[in-house]
Every structure is written in structure tokens, then in C-alpha cells.
Amino acid sequence: MEVYKADVAIVGAGGGGLRAAIAVAEADPTLKIALISKVYPMRSHTVAAEGGAAGVTRPDDSLEYHFNDTVHGGDWLCEQDVVEYFVAHSHEEMVQMEHWGCPWSRKDDGHVNVRAFGGMKIERTWFAADKTGFHMLHTLFQTSIKYPSIKRFDEYFCSDLMVEDGRCQGVLAIQIATGEFTLIEAKAVIIATGGAGRVFRENTNGGIVTGDGMALAYRHGVPLRDMEFMQYHPTCMPGTGLLFTEACRGEGGFLLNKDGYRYLQDYGLGPAEPSPRNKAMELGPRDRLSQAFWHEKRKGRTVEGPHGAVVNLDLRHLGAAKLHERLPLICELAEEFLGVDPAHTPIPVLPAVHYTMGGILADGKTASSLPGLYSVGECSSVGIHGANRLGSNSLTELIVFGKVAGVEAAKFARSVSISNPAAIEKQAEAARTRALDVVTQSRGKERLAVLRTEMAQSMENGCGIYRLESDMQATCDKLRELRERYRNLKIDDHSKVYNTEWLLSIELGYLLEVAEAIVHSALNRKESRGSHQRLDGFEERDDVNYLKHSLAYYTGDGPPRIEYGDVKITKSTPGTRAYGAAGEEAEAAEREREGAGND
Amino acid sequence: MTDTEKVIEIQVLRYRPEQETEPVLQSFKVPFTDDMSVLQGLQYIKDYLDGTVSFRWSCRMAICGSCGMMIDGKPKLSCKTFLREYYPAGLRIEALAHMPIERDLIVDAGDFITKLESIKPYIIPKEPRTLEQGEYLQTPQQRDMYEQFSSCINCMLCYAACPQYGLDKTFTGPGVLALMHRYNADSRDGASAERMDLGYAHEGFWGCTAVGYCSVVCPKGVDPANAINQNKMNSAINYFTRFVTPKGGTK
Amino acid sequence: MKRSNEPIFWSLFGAGGMLAALIGPALVLITGIAVPLGILFPADTMSYAHMLAFAQSWIGKILLLAVIALFMWHAAHRIAILLHDFGVHAVTVVKVVCYGLAFAGTVIAAWTLLGL
Amino acid sequence: MSKRRPYVRSMDGWWKRDAYFVKYMAREVTAVFVAAYAVVLLVGLVRLAQGQAAYEGWLAALKSPLSLVFHLVLLATFVYHTWSWFNIMPKTMPIMFVGGKRVQPGMITGAGLAAAVVACLAVLLIVRGVAS
Lengths: 599, 251, 116, 132
Ligand SMILES: Cc1cc2nc3c(=O)[nH]c(=O)nc-3n(C[C@H](O)[C@H](O)[C@H](O)COP(=O)(O)OP(=O)(O)OC[C@H]3O[C@@H](n4cnc5c(N)ncnc54)[C@H](O)[C@@H]3O)c2cc1C
Ligand code: SF4
Ligand code: F3S
Ligand code: FES
Prior knowledge:
The complex is a heterotetramer of chains A (599), B (251), C (116) and D (132). Chain C is built from 4 helices and no strands.
């Protein structure tokens, strides 16, 4: 087996992984970095992010506002000290991206422009038309080329972590082009493998978003935190789930039911005004908007389309010129996939799974509970999203915590050495056999795609926008069954060169385990909070029992063990999440309260 | 998915290096609906007919650049090409032209990546600036000078379209030269002279004979033919004036 | 990387191409069709006397040389590429022959014009 | 060890693979006719230098039906050259703005073609003016 000796190994070359790699390279150019990705870096799913990245910029905005929007949006399940760090470092990281060449949209005076996003008090979303993630990813990738210490392993699929002497000391990867294995020894490992949206049926995620890194860390005893919180995005394409960015509403788009009525005003988000107002109506938070859709559908006020119920996203009043300047990708998607010109016809939309709020347990400095193992990006739960992520916080998370992860991993790597190379190599041999077994031991008749489809359907049934104990239990049972059947896969492909079917079956293994962590965490959380909403007697938030992070632990073949951890509160005690007019009243009351307290 | 099921014939150029000595066509019958992309057709094949068919894909929304293929002889993104356009005649899918086939619809992208790395595709600032000084000022019009060229998704369709690249692999090629121009044209950058060493060479702009097909097939409106050919004039001027204008003079 | 000498040939190619694009059709129409047929123009438009006088004037010398030489350089460049496009790999030979012929044509034209 | 065996496809006959390539080749082939015309003119010039008899022989040859047909073909290829020349013109120009608005490729081609028409007419008129 080929062995590569690195100082820091980074699994994943999306926005998070690339930013971390650059941070290591800048922290210490003598450290050898292995940057491993199962696709070429610019194919990573960061590329699909449309809307923008948050950073306090305008003089009328403040760190406190960003903090409050984030913590309230997350229904107080955020690690507040981490959020404080995050909001304080967002702007400088955005400027850093600008210095590296990111083509941010500009104002006439040459300064960077910001736009409105859901759940935000003041406009603070930096954007590059509606291809923000694309531009950030390509800027980071191209900038990374500048650093000779970054050695890329493009199209290498990571199949396991090497844990020796109680710390993470490397990864095992398959070179997809040859089917051969490479052991990458490393003194520190950063996981940056992105989310797990593909466990659901209708989703906005790319085919590669299969929770690999989460499953890898989980199998080695690191808990997955807050996995029950999956974000539904309210405006996605029926059939494919492709995203129409929140910026559509930030720019002034309306959501209409079948009567052409802006139904959000019936759900505590009003009053309906002709132009967008921050934190109200269409600019409310994602969980609320997705939930409102569900209720409209129940009331029979949605439109029936070929792919089920939809509502209309109306952009017509923005005019063709503005649409093409600010939302060109949206126009392209609508025209090519749906045959709809948004300047003349409203776009049919529905909610789809979009973002994995939970992830690998990480402290405020991205370190996991396993020494030497760090995580960043959507796979990580560093603690800023809580029960519901604020739109445009995650792109910023990639660069703020990508840098932190790089600096911390570099520090750690300098402080240790590889303890027992022979033992690691032996481990790698064993892991190699396990990975090969998926194909060589496959003698059953289960089709990969069938299992995958059943899993995704079952997750949608059990862990959708609203949840019931009986449905969740059914999904738990289904996943047990699928994990059993997974042992009897029938694999057509027994070759080595670009055997994508083999990789898909390894991914299915990851998906199934992450799915279990999600549904068991959900089943155990007997309250409603953020994106986790129950209809079976637990409709309210329960701060007494559940102002807690859920932690899912791997137990081998059995279902995960769910434990709970404390939430760090620094300055915002749990209150009511209110938006629209009610939100403004609540805020005024709070100001008064605080004012009184200060005197 | 209520319309009565239509079935389309998809021919896929197969090549499995461990099995075949040269590529062969294999035919599949795929049920489809009008909103199905060619990529979805291939996924159907892989999921239910033959798990060994290999291809790259991820985003499904024409932004990750993975899924380029020759569809009925034209380089296209399979996720934004629809089966309905080929009904009832059927369609033929092959790996992107001009690049070695690794397996089935997967080509070797290594040459493209090496070339991309060779052009210093990052800002080398004209005037360095600290983070405390904030962002560089750049007017929307200055941004427009390069924005189009920065929209390249590295899908390599233009490489499959450019016969000059097909004939001579030392040619840097349309997409990468467009990115070179993207950095040269950025008001924040000051290193065009360095990059132009390559631009001025036979492997740079001069490998292009203005076929122009690259720009026709580009799914993102990058217009690489323009990026290259507008530089020929600059290069010629620089060639004749380089001894009179001692330094740079490349912009 | 080695700087290409293309700019020399490309500039001549471009100048010839532009000249041909702008006035080529008119020239062909006059010298090859209208005058031989005796239509549109007076019968003696290209008579020996007229043309000799034209070729002896400085402006005439320059125009004739420009058209003949630049057309040739334009064509030489494209034909060299054409051969490469058709898969003739002897790049240097092709270039020497094509540009050599254009050079020869230029010399002959210039020599003749100077002698008039 | 590696089972990789990348397959390189041949480029033979590439220009027949796509209508676009055929069009490109047609554009390039116009050069042969431009060269031919330059040779015709060069011969005329040499004949001119050789004296009246020689020159008039050349003039007479131009009047032959074969020559006339040949020049008709030349005319067609020159027109195609003009059209294709200005068609790729926008690719060779930097991005331009007039009054804050991006100049569209179609406008550049249109302006080029218009210039060619004007130039040709001017040549015809001048020649006529001088000759009569
Ligand atoms: C359609 C869409 C729009 C979005 N819009 C916004 C927005 O406007 N604003 C915002 O803030 N957020 C947005 N998000 C969320 C945000 O884009 C993502 O959370 C973020 O980009 C994730 O980045 P990442 O670096 O963590 O992972 P990714 O970019 O997904 O990268 C994962 C990397 O890990 C690699 N990898 C995975 N598994 C393996 C393995 N087994 N072996 C080797 N490598 C592996 C992959 O190859 C890839 O390089 C959006 C998300 C989607 C889906
Ligand atoms: S220039 Fe266009 S066709 Fe070429 S790689 Fe970039 S996006 Fe693809
Ligand atoms: S197709 Fe090729 S030859 Fe030039 S204009 Fe485009 S790079
Ligand atoms: S799948 Fe991403 S471009 Fe087609």
C-alpha cells in the first residue's frame, strides 16, 4: 500500500477544507498538507450556494444584531460564546476573500454591496450575483494553488480514519482512478466533508453530499450533535429539489398560495407590505416559512402540480432587468428546467431538505472529542446554528472556522509525532479489507438504488417538517431493516478503474448510519424547537428538559445511544422567537426591560 | 409523473480498460418524462439496468462542471440537456472529445488541472493591502471587465469543442486562457506581465486559430474565444514595442 | 516559455484579411468581371496606358504592392494553418514553403513596381 | 499495478464531425482564393512591365469564359471571406462600453459589414470616376 506522510490531512476540499488548508499553509509553510477530496475541489457542493455570506458591514448594523439574529434564529440552541467569536470575525474573513479576488457585487462607489436575507435585522449578506458559493469556492481553490505545501489528492475517496494511541493519526483513501489504496499518515486530521442532505428524498444537495465524514468520526466514537435538526428550505424546485435562493425573497419576491394570497401573514409573520421588510413575511426564518407551507397544504390552499403541492414564488414585479442583474442563475434554472420566465410567470416552489444543522461534535476551536481530529463546515457542529440555521451564516462559517481549524490543527501537528507507524499500517490493511468486502463479499440480490430510495422515502415520512412518534419509530425500524439488507448488496461492478458503484455502496453505508443518528435524536427530543416540530403532544419548546444538545453515539450494529449535553448561554436567555410586527413589539419590550435593568 | 410513459433509446459509449481494448456502443431503453435530463436518464441506467456504467455528476444544476459529455456529438452538460429534445430518435452519449477516456464517460482531466495551475490563477496584488484597510474599491464597471471570464465552471466543454486542443495538447486551451485573462483584467491584480510569458508563447494565445466553437458550447457565457483573441492584438503590440517600452507595457 | 514569433505573421495576416474583407469583393468585381465584360466601367479602364500610368505613380505603386503582398501574406498564414488542421505535421516545412512563397511574391511585386 | 489504460481517440477527419467545423474550414479555405487572386494580379503586373503586347495578352485571357467563371467563384469566396471576417471580429476586440452600456457582439459585426459595403462602393465609384 502506498503511504504518504503528511503533517495535516484534510478530508474534503469544499469551502471549509480549502480555507483550512490555506490557514495551515500560512500558519507554518513547513507543514506538509494533504488535501483529500472525492471530487475535484471545484466540484464540491459549496459551488451550489447561491445567495450569499453574512458579515456585519453597514454602519447601522452591529455585532449584537448579528448575534441576536443567529441565536434567536437557532431557537437558543446555539453555543453563545462560539457565536460571539463567529460574528466578531465574519467581516474580516469576508474582506480576506475580497483580497483573494472574490468578485463580490459592488455599489457604484466601489464598495462591496450587501443584501437582505431571511431572519436578519439589517442587510449584511455579501453576494456575488446569485453565484456566491461558486465564486467563493473557485476563489479559494485557485488561491490554494499558490501554496506549494498543499498537496492535493483529487478524486481520492476517504474510507476510514486511523486512530492509534487514542488519537487520530491519518486516513485511508481510495484513488478512484485506480481503485488502489493510499494510507495518509498525519499528525492532525480535519474533516470537512459537508452535509448529509442526501439521506432525504427531495433535497437541494449534490450527489456527493452523503455525510461521509460524519459517519467516519461517529464510527470512531465521536458523537454527532443535534442531528435531528435538518433545515427545510421553503423555495425549491418541484421534482428535483433544486434551490431558488432566499435572495429571491431578499430582492422582494412574494410567496403566494393558489388564490394569489400572501399567506405568510396568517402565520404570525405579517403584516404584508409591498416591499420587503427584514424579519417579516417572506423574510422570516426558513423553518417558519416551511411550516407555513405545510399548513397551507393541509388547508387545501396550495396548487396541485405534477410533483405534488406547490406554492408560487412571484418575482414578476421586480422586472426583467433587475432579475437578470441580481438573480441570473435563478432565471436560468427556471427557464431551462421548468420552462418558466420569472419576469412573466411565478415559479412553482415547495420546501425541500437543504442543510444539516447538526454534525461532528466540535468545541469552539473545531476540536472533536478525539485528540487530533478537527471538523469544519457543514459536517461539523461547532455550535452556531442551533435548532435552525440563519440563511447565509454557513458560507461565512466555512471561512471563519476553516481558518480556526487550520490554525489549531497546525498547532497540534507541531506538538506531536506519529506514534506507531507499523500499527497504523496494520490498521490500514484491515480497513482496506473492510472497504473491499463491500464488493467482494456481495453475494445478495439487494439493489443499491432500491435501498437508497427506501431510506430517503422513509426519512421524509418520519423526519419531515412535522414529526410524529409513530412515524419516527417506523423510520427507526425501517433503517434497522435497511442496515440488515445492506449486507446483501448485489454489485454489478467488480473492476478497479473508476468503479463508482463500489463508492456508492460505501456511501450508502455512511448514509444509513447518519440517518439513524438523525431519527433517533429526533425521536428522543420530546419538544418542538426550530426545525424540529412535533405534533404528538410536544408542540411547545421545553427549556426545562430540552435546552440541551443531543449527542448520538455509535454502538456498532445497534441503534445509536442518545445522550445530552449542556448549551452555553452567555448573554441571551431564551425568549420567544417572534417575527413580523410581533417581533418588533417583543424587541421594544426587551429593550425597555434591559434599559430598566441598566439604570 | 403522470404522462403516459415514453421510452427513449440511449446509446452509451462504453470503455472499461480492464475489459475492452477500445470503446463500444451499448444501447439502453429508458422510460422518461419531459422534465428528465440526460443525466437522469443515465442515473436510471446505473440504478436499474447496469450498475457498471460510470460517469461523473454532482450538483444537477449546471454549476459544478462535472457532467460534461458529448451528446449526439456536441459537448454539453448532461444535467441541463433534456431527453425530450432527442425523442423519438434517441441519442448517443460519449465521453468528452479530445481527452483520453479513463472509463466509459469519464475523461482524464489531469491536463486541464495542470494547465490551470500553471497560469497563477490568483490575485497578485498591485498594491498590497491589510485586512484592516478593508476591501479594495472596484466599481461595477471595473468588475464587469473580468466578471464574465470568472464565471468559468471548469467543465471542459470548450476543450472538447476546440480542434486546436485536440490536435496539439501543448495548447493551453480556451477555458484556462479565459481564466488567465480574468486575473489580468482584474483591477486589483498587478501580475499580468508575469502571466503573459505563457500567453505570448506558442502554447498560449497563438495556439488558437479563432475557430470560435469554444464560445458556442460554453454553458456559462464565458466567451473564451474573446478572452484569447482580444489578447492577440495586445501580444502583437507588445512584441513590436517591447524594446522601446522597457518594462511591462502588457496591459 | 519561449515567446512566439507569430505576431509578425499574424499582423500581416490580419492586415491582409482586413483589406480583403473591406475592398476585396469590389476589386474582383472590377478586374475580373465588369471590365473584361465591358460593363459598368468605360472600355479603357484597364488599358495599357491607364495601368502603366497608375503603376508609375507613387500612390499606384503603394496600392498595388499593398494588395498583392498583403493578400499573399494573409493567404500564406491561413494555408499554413489549414495544412496543420488537415494533419500535416511537418510544421516547419509548411511554414517555410507558405511564408517563402508569400515573401517571393512580395519581392517580385516590389521589384517589378520599382522597375516601372 | 494500476489497471488504468486511458484511451486516446483519433482526430482523423475531425472537420467533418460537426457542421460548425465545416463552416470554419470553409472560412479558412477562402485563403486559397485570396492567394489565387493575388497571383492573377501579380501576373498582370509582371506583364505590364514586359510591355503592351504582353499586358494585352493578359487582358485578353481575363475575357475568356473560363476566367470569367473563375472570377465569379472568386467573388463568391471574397464575399464569404468578408462575412466570416466580421463575424469573428467581436471575439478579437476587448470588452467595450459606450455610455455605460456593454457593446454587443452583433453591433460590432454589423458595423464591420457596413464598413465593407461602404468601402466597396467607394472603390467602385472612385475607379469609375478616375476612368471616365
Ligand atoms: C443549493 C444550496 C445553496 C446554499 N446557499 C447558501 C447560501 O446562500 N449561504 C450560505 O451561507 N449557505 C448556503 N448553503 C449552505 C452551504 O453552501 C454549505 O453548507 C457549505 O457550502 C458546505 O461546505 P463544506 O465545505 O462544509 O462542504 P462541501 O462544499 O460540500 O465539500 C465537501 C467536500 O468533502 C469532500 N468529501 C466528502 N466525502 C468525502 C470522502 N468520503 N472522501 C474524500 N472527500 C470527501 C467532497 O469531495 C468535497 O470536497 C447552500 C447549500 C446548498 C445546497
Ligand atoms: S470556458 Fe465555458 S466551456 Fe470552457 S471550461 Fe469554462 S465554463 Fe466550461
Ligand atoms: S475553439 Fe479553439 S481555436 Fe481558439 S477560438 Fe476557441 S480556442
Ligand atoms: S451535475 Fe453539476 S454541472 Fe451537471
